[in-house]
Structure formats: C-alpha cells, structure tokens
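Retro notes (design track)

What went well: tokenization of the new backbones is finally stable.
What didn't: we kept losing track of which sequence belonged to which structure.
Fix going forward: every design gets posted as structure first, then sequence, in one message. First example under the new rule, 337 residues:
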C-alpha cells in the first residue's frame, strides 16, 4: 500500500539551542555541519520529491526541520531557511512545513513569523516533566514553561507535537508515566517517544563510561512504552514515532541502550500479546491448543517478532500449540478454539 504522507527531513544539528543536553552529540564536525543552508534544504527536497513522478508521490508532502531549536535561530536565518521552501509550496510539491524547537523560544512574535511562512506544525521537546530528571539531563527550565508554550502554540492554530524521552538519568517508569499524564494535559495533536540511548561524544556517554548511568534494558523500555501507548490511544492521541530512525550517523555513534529499528512494532506486539493472554485467562481455557482469529492487517503483531508471542503463550499457559487465523482486514481479536 502506497504511503499517504511523506515527510522530507531537513537537519540543522545543534543549532539554535542554548543547551547541551547530556543525550546530545556535541561534536559539530559532521558532514551536515559543513553544508550550506541552501544545500541543507534543497538536497533532501530533490532526493525525496524528484526521485519519482509527481503522480507516484504520496498525496500529502511535508518538509520538517529537525535536530536543532528552529525558533532559537536568528530571525534572518529562519526567514532564509523557510523562504527556500516557499516555491515548493507554491508549485504544489509541498503542502506543509513543520519545525522542532524548545519551549524557551516560543512567543507570539516567533509564532507570527512561522505562520507568515506557512508552517503548520510545531513540535516541542518535553523529554520529561520531572524536575530532577530535567536537571540531570541538563535541560532545566522554569516550572510550567512547556505547558505555557504548548498552549500558545495551540492558540495560534498550529498543530502541536510533543516529544518524550524515557530512561534519562534519574528517570523511572513511574516518573515517565507522570510525564505521560502531564503531556496529555497539554492536549497535543500527536506525540513521539524516543527512549534514551547512549551515543558517543555525549555527556551521557561519559557518565556511562564512569558507571554513573545505565540505560534501561529492552524489557523495561517496552513495558513502559506499552503503558504509554495505551494511555495515549485511550485519549485519542496518536504516537507517530517510537525510537530514533536508524540513520547511518546514529548507528555509527550508538553505544548502548534500548534501540531497535522497529521499536513501535515491538511495542505493538507486546500489546497484542497482552490481549491474547487476557482472552485465554477470561475463557479459562483447559485444552492444550489455542487458535486465535485476528484482523488480517494486524496478524504480524499478534504472532510477534520472530513468532515470540506464540512461544510465550505456549510457555505461560502450558499449551502444545498456539496459532492464528486471519479474519477480516478490520475486526476484533477472537479466541475460536
């Protein structure tokens, strides 16, 4: 099935931000840093939008500035970067722009500038709402700043995205779930969840080498993310990304932590496992085999990564065999035998 939404990523690493958070790479010698602003913008546009005929491209196409604090850049530079996108909006190759930034750099004047250049979405890096976690992460801010900025973004008719980073120094699953609740109170249109990773040339890497920090393991991370995804789904807030994209530069710098190229899939599989286990318990099944009827489009998440869910259910319920049958494309999970 063809994608309906294409995001063209434009990276401005470590630019516009006054902080050097412990999880950010502080070495500014990458190829990205050697690019001119014009190349930073035009190169990905040409790669993503001119590789296929227009009729074969996804129906909705959006450019997104990542990696820095966009509204913390000098006004003249923001205008230059956004100005490069205007012809692509005018000719219909692009339909929207989104930017990522810090709550410290949200005010009516900055938002007016974004609206002038047809930005539709503003994403704020929350990471955590726990004061101690933020302090240890080098990201302290005044109480309520994120909530105030989020409300200002909403009042100015932008789509609001919020980003959380579970597993930072001092974080716990309990603290993370409080962050989830407080994020929901800001009424975002969507969220991203980025588990904290140890990346070379970061303060977090130095803490890791000194034995002062250990990242969450995969099991703890998936369980925490599962709880968060369920809460967000219950509130009607989509989680549009879980985990960092496996860019070559990220993979080269990766040291430790809960990374998987398909983290969202693993979380969805865990949710599927829980649903299947709950059905088995509710039916008080005494037989040695179990057959589930699953929606065809969700079969893989019920089977699990490398059929892990089927194996776990066999062990948990002392079953000889667990299998799935595909039902309608959209439907409910059923225990049929």
């Amino acid at each position: 099935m063809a994608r309906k939404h294409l995001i063209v990523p434009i990276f401005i690493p470590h630019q516009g931000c006054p902080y050097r958070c412990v999880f950010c790479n502080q070495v500014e010698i990458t190829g990205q840093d050697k690019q001119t602003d014009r190349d930073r913008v035009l190169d990905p546009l040409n790669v993503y939008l001119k590789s296929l005929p227009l009729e074969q491209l996804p129906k909705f196409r959006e450019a997104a500035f990542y990696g820095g604090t966009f509204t913390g850049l000098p006004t003249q530079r923001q205008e230059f970067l956004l100005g490069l996108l205007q012809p692509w909006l005018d000719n219909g190759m692009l339909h929207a722009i989104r930017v990522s930034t810090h709550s410290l750099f949200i005010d009516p004047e900055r938002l007016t500038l974004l609206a002038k250049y047809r930005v539709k979405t503003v994403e704020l890096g929350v990471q955590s709402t726990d004061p101690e976690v933020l302090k240890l992460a080098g990201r302290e801010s005044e109480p309520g700043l994120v909530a105030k900025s989020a409300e200002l973004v909403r009042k100015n008719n932008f789509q609001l995205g919020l980003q959380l980073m579970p597993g930072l120094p001092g974080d716990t699953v309990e603290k993370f779930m409080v962050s989830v609740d407080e994020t929901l109170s800001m009424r975002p249109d969507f969220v991203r969840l980025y588990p904290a990773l140890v990346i070379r040339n970061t303060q977090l890497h130095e803490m890791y080498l000194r034995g002062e920090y250990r990242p969450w393991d995969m099991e703890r991370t998936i369980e925490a993310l599962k709880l968060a995804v369920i809460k967000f789904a219950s509130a009607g807030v989509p989680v549009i990304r879980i985990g960092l994209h496996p860019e070559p530069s990220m993979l080269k710098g990766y040291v430790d932590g809960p990374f998987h190229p398909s983290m969202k899939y693993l979380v969805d599989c865990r949710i599927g496992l829980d649903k299947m286990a709950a059905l088995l318990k509710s039916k008080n099944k005494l037989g040695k085999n179990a057959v589930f009827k699953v929606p065809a489009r969700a079969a893989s998440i019920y089977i699990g990564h490398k059929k892990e869910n089927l194996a776990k259910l066999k062990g948990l319920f002392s079953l000889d065999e667990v299998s799935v049958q595909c039902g309608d494309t959209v439907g409910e999970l059923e225990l049929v035998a």
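Added context from the reviewer: Residues 263-283 form the longest helix (21 residues).
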